[in-house]
User: Which sequence fits this backbone?
């Protein structure tokens, strides 16, 4: 008697980091680009914003029979305000100077949707940067790694050299709160994806 294949998770994201994390965890998935348009109010609460964006992304790709749909949104937050993706070298440098020698939060909203239920949660990881010198900033900015990265850095690359301490889920900082996702898969799909 053959076992039916595990239904893949539908990832409502084109992020290469999120694809890499699901691959690392051995979770089968397919990618569907979300049609959700993010609208950020400067005064919005960052937690509510990432939750709203995660749900919007997941819902925007529609339901997929027995396959759960995963939407994720991640923000880098310092002094209660989100740092987006820098629009150029000057903005990237300003962001990194602001994070230098300080602790910030990486907050991800995660929404898992099936035809029968929807789960919406968030995860917070705190990251402390070492005090950065002008040479540190020039070296990192020169690498170009800051481009397209919320907060202007990528912890899975050269950006790891900027970090002094981290508390929480490391993969959340990379772009997907893996521990939270696995908890939900264990709760709803025990054994299906190899967990629980």
Assistant:
């Amino acid at each position: 008697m053959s076992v039916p294949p595990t239904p893949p998770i539908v990832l409502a994201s084109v992020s290469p980091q999120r694809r890499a994390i699901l691959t690392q965890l051995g979770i089968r998935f397919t990618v569907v680009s979300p049609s959700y348009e993010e609208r950020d109010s400067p005064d919005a609460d960052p937690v509510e914003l990432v939750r709203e964006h995660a749900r919007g992304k997941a819902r925007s790709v529609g339901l997929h029979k027995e396959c759960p749909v995963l939407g994720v949104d991640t923000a880098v937050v310092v002094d209660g305000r989100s740092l987006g993706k820098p629009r150029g070298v000057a903005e990237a440098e300003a962001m990194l100077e602001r994070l230098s020698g300080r602790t910030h939060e990486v907050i991800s909203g995660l929404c898992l949707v099936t035809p029968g239920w929807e789960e919406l949660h968030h995860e917070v990881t705190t990251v402390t940067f070492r005090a950065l010198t002008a040479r540190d900033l020039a070296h990192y900015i020169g690498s170009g790694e800051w481009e397209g990265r919320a907060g202007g850095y990528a912890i899975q690359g050269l950006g790891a050299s900027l970090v002094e301490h981290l508390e929480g889920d490391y993969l959340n900082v990379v772009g997907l709160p893996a521990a939270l996702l696995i908890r939900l898969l264990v709760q709803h799909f025990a054994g299906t994806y190899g967990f629980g």
User: Anything to note?
Assistant: The helical segments are 16-24, 46-60, 89-99, 134-143, 170-174, 178-189. The chain has a mean pLDDT of 95. The chain has six helices and seven strands. The first helix runs from residue 16 to 24.
